[in-house]
Amino acid sequence: MLIVSWPSRQEAIKVKMRMFFTGKLIIEIIQILII
């Protein structure tokens, strides 16, 4: 593993959070469509 500088590390965390929230949104939409 490469040592990542703090700014890019924060960016990676932001991207992960965004992906996590979009994933939750997609799951909720699918559940609504199924019901």
From TrEMBL:
Name listed for the protein in its UniProt record: Uncharacterized protein
Record organism: viral metagenome
